[in-house]
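FW: tagging you since you asked about this chain on Friday. Here's the raw sequence from the shared folder, copied in full. Didn't touch anything.
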Amino acid sequence: MLLIGMFDSPFVRRVAITMKLLEVPFEHANWSVGRDFDHIREYNPLGRVPTLVTDEGESLMESGAILDYLDERAGPERALLPRSGAERRRALNLIAMATGAAEKGVLQIYERVFRPEDKRHAPWTDRCRAQMSGSLAAIDRYLGERGASQWLVGKRMTQADITCVCAFTFLDDALRVGSDAVMFSSLATLAGRCESLPAFQQTRVPFLLPNS
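HL: got it, structure written out here
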């Protein structure tokens, strides 16, 4: 299999970590949506990442669809998303908040990178930051309420943990959200635990803003 996209993207990274945890061999095409846009479009007409090219030559697009394929391939006992019921709904809700926070972070980054300072619209970026921070705070609050449990859902790592940590680490690299140790203390603890694991370390590429 071929995974296309750079690991500094939380969406690419959550796929790569999942593949490593499920022991799915893959090659990595470290292609940028800027520099390698035309090359990526040979596999994905949108030119977006992640894109996964399966052993059968099928191109899968968007991280959610790719993760669904990987879980189906792994089987119900090894799948990283709960099969049904309240735990599945809870995991999907946490994942939605984490990916939403990451997307709002990306919009803030685009505003900073692609617009001259005098053209930036502060009410828009303030709104994006409020949405991002609100989602992270809700995840952090939920994790804190779990008490002694070290995982977001159930008694083992699930896709909720992987995605939330990938989003939090990306946003901390790019926007320093982790500087508020009180607001996101539970989430920071989860991130520290996960980032020490081999699958996370092997995909850790800090996001750096241009000229940073």
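FW: The CA atoms of residues 141 and 186 lie 8 Å apart.
HL: agreed, and The domain at 85-197 is CATH 1.20.1050.10 (Glutathione S-transferase Yfyf (Class Pi); Chain A, domain 2).
FW: great, closing this out.
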